[in-house]
Amino acid sequence: MLHIIFLFSLLFTASTNVLAQDFCVGDLKSSPYPSGYACKPETSVTAEDFAYSGLGVPGNTSNIIKAAVTPAFVAQFAGLNGLGLSSARLDMDVGGVIPLHTHPGADEILFVVSGRIKAGFVSSSNAVYIKVLKKGDLMVFPKGLLHFQLNVAKHSSVAIVTFNKPVPGLQILDFALFASSFPTALVEATTFLDEAQIKKLKGVLGGTG
C-alpha cells in the first residue's frame, strides 16, 4: 500500500511540474526544432514577448497578385512558441487575389477587418463553397483544401487570418504549375491546358521547362 501511495505521489509531482510551465517563449537565437524553439529563461521573459505590433503595418501590394501576406508566426512572435497557433495580415488592393492554394498543415479562419472579400474552397468531393464576406465576417477553410480570397471592394481590403498550427505550410497552385520547372508537356498532359497558354503563364510567373 505504501508503494502505491509513493507511486501516486511521484506522478502527482511530475504532473504538477508539467502544468507549472504556463508558456515557453521562444528563444529566437536558438536553432528551431520541428516542435519550435527552445524556451527563454523565465527570468528574461517580459510582457513584450506576449504582444506583437507587426500586423499594424500594411503589406506591399505592388505585385502581380496585388496582395500581401504579413506573417505573425513564431519566428516573428516568440510568445506563440509551443502554443500551436499562428496568424497573419492579408492586404488586398483593388482586384487583389490570393490564388487557389492550400495549407497542408493547418485549418484557417479569416476575419475581415475592412472591405469586401469573396472567398471560397473546394472540398475533396469537388463541392464548392463561396461567400462574399464583409467587415466583421469570419470564414473557415479546412486543412489541405484548395481555397482563395479575392478583393471585390472598390477600395483595398484587409483581413486577419489565424491558423491552428505554428507552421501552416503553403502551396499556391498557379505558382506550383507556372513558376516552377514542371515540364510544359507534363503540365499540358495533367491539366488539359494547351501548350501556348502554359508557356504564356510560365512567361508571366517565371517558370521554366
UniProtKB/TrEMBL annotation:
Residues 1-20 form the signal peptide. One of its GO terms (cellular component) is apoplast. Disulfide bonds join C24-C39. It is found in: Secreted, Extracellular space, Apoplast. Mn(2+) binds at H101, H103, E108, H147. Oxalate binds at H103, E108. Pfam families: Cupin_1. Belongs to the germin family. Keywords: Apoplast, Disulfide bond, Glycoprotein, Manganese, Metal-binding, Secreted, Signal. One of its GO terms (molecular function) is manganese ion binding. The keyword Metal-binding applies. It comes from Corchorus olitorius. This is Germin-like protein.
